[in-house]
Structures are given as C-alpha cells and as structure tokens.
Design a protein that fits this description.
329 residues; 16-stranded antiparallel barrel
C-alpha cells in the first residue's frame, strides 16, 4: 500500500497494534493468532488533484478518503506470518467506490536478538522510513520509493543505537489495483537513533527505472521537534516515460502543547531537471519545480485513537484541507 503518506503514523500503528491486537487463539506453548485492524475516516476539502497529479474526474468540494485494513497475524515459535486486506477509496473516479487490495501476505523468522527476515508480498525495507522527518499527514512531498512489492525478501535488524534493513523484490506481475512495480527493486536503509537525534540514509535502485537516495533527520528539544529530509531521484531515460531528475527538500517543525495536542508545520520544495513531459502508465507523477507549506494539528485522544487536521497552500496544487480520525487495534 503506497498511500499519502503516513509512514511514521503507520509505524506507530503497527507498534501499537501489537499491544491492542485482538487475540483469537493463545496456545500453552506460546503460539498465537491475532486479529489486527485500522480505520481512517475523513478526506480532502477543496483539492483538485489526486496523488498521481491527475485532476479529479468530477467537481466536488469534499472527496472522501476513508480507509480500512484487516489482518491476521500468526506466531508459532520464532516463525510468524501476516495477511492484510485493505479497503480504500478510488478517489480518482466519479463513483469513488471502495476497492479491496491484498496489502500483505508474507512469512517471517525472528532471531533471538530481535532481527527479522521475511518473504512474500510486503513493504520493502526503505518503505519503513521513507518519510522520516516529515511531520505532515498528507501535505509534504513524497519520496518515490517502492512500497509493497511481490516476492520480496527483506532483512531488518539493529545493534546498539543503529538500525538497518535491506530488501530485494523480483519483477512484479500483479497489476490489478496494486502498486507492485515493473522491474527488480533493491533498497535499504541505515540509521542512528539516539536520545534526542535520529539520522538515517536510504537508497533504492529499480531495474529500468532509476535510483533514489535520501538523507533523513529528526531532533527533539523539550516540546519542540525538528525534522526533514533530502531526496534525490535520478531517472533513467526511456521512451514514453517521465525522465525528470528531481531533488526534493522537506523541512518540519513541531510543538507539543501537552501529551495530547501537537502543532506541525512542514515546508516542501521540489527542484526538477526535466527531459520530457510524458508520464509512464504505472502512475509515476511528473514532478515540476514547486514549493508549498502545510500546517496541522494532531489530537491524541487515546493511545490508539488520533484526530488530525491539516491545511496545505502554495504551488501548483493550490490550497486544500485534509482531516481524518484514526483508530486501530
């Protein structure tokens, strides 16, 4: 699932789900079967374009972006498996109907030191930290690395204050409403996570598509949070494809009023060297030179319930609002 993105939020949802999951079966030997899920209710106010840069096919002040996900997680000793089904709006059509997507289907092994190796349809390694340093809900520019991919082999681990991950995905074949890409995908990350500062580098290469590199950082000084990232996209020239080389800057500042309410402001700038104005059929957005700002409030009602409101202005996309309530278990 490559959505708007909330990669940092998704990471927090997954971490919380291990605590709030509904246990369907608990064996005496420690085997478990858990039901996990999440709900996002809300959408866009006054936005004219979808996430691929295409204008909506209908006129509407409000565009619903409600999302639901249900999953089964099975643990047997050090072996585990995970199946997720997503239900999301087709916000680029007039009907705005729900579509069901197989988000994840993988098996894994957890080593005694906590490292994990997984195989199946799952997030690539880079996808876990692609938006680190971005405090927005939907407003900042996205690192255009691969999301969920078929036949992905992934390893993630840590030592002391360092975290790392690497994945390899074979050429995707299921082009039915999924974001599995054409071409082999290799990506990974390496980062330092300290008491007050986090720094991470990520990289990806896609066969016949191009390379992506990024540097991410976050800092914490009392109630003030600072973050951002720089992402370089080097496209390979192919006939009929967007061959824009793009440099993306995102800078974030946040302030925590208390343990429930926070304010976030994010600035995005895109610098593009464009060779052609054509766009590939697989949904890559054509970057253009642009910059914009988003500002929003986050209210943490409970550990598994959040409400987020955001306003975005500037650049080609104009001004729009985004509001959602999140609940997960």
């Amino acid at each position: 699932m490559k959505r708007t993105n909330l990669s940092l939020l998704v990471c927090s949802l997954l971490a919380a789900s291990s605590v709030n999951a509904v246990t369907l079966y608990q064996g005496e030997n420690g085997d478990k079967v858990d039901l996990v899920g999440s709900f996002e209710v809300g959408g866009y106010f006054g936005k004219d374009y979808n996430d691929n840069g295409e204008r909506w096919e209908y006129d509407s002040y409000y565009t619903d972006d409600t999302f639901m996900s249900y999953g089964i997680r099975v643990q047997t000793g050090q072996i585990y498996s995970h199946l997720d089904l997503d239900f999301e709006r087709q916000t680029w059509t007039k009907e705005n109907e729900f579509q069901m997507v197989l988000d994840k289907a993988y098996v894994g092994w957890q080593f005694d030191n906590g490292d994990k190796i997984e195989f199946g349809r799952t997030d690539t390694a880079y996808d876990h930290y692609d938006q680190m340093g971005d405090f927005s809900v939907d407003g900042a520019g996205e690192v255009r690395e691969a999301g969920d991919q078929d036949a992905t082999l992934k390893y993630r681990g840590s030592f002391n204050n360092f975290k790392y991950g690497i994945s390899y995905s074979t050429q995707g074949w299921d082009h039915y409403k999924t974001d599995s890409r054409v071409g082999e995908v290799v990506n990974g990350y390496f980062g330092y996570f300290g008491d007050n500062v986090d720094v991470l580098v990520g990289a990806e290469t896609v066969d016949e598509r191009g390379d992506i590199y990024s540097l991410h950082a976050r800092g914490f000084v009392g109630p003030v949070r600072l973050g951002g990232f720089i992402s370089q996209y080097d496209a390979e020239e192919r006939e009929g494809y967007d061959t824009s080389d793009a440099l993306l800057y995102v800078a974030s500042v946040g302030y925590d009023f208390n343990d429930k309410l926070a304010l976030n402001v994010v600035y995005t700038n895109v610098d593009v060297d464009t060779e052609t104005r054509e766009v590939a059929d697989d949904g890559y957005r054509l970057w253009i030179d642009d910059s914009w700002v988003s500002a929003g409030l986050v209210y943490n009602y409970r550990s598994n319930i959040k409400v987020k409101v955001e306003f975005v202005t500037g650049g080609e996309q104009g001004s729009y609002g985004y509001s959602k309530a999140y609940y997960w278990f």
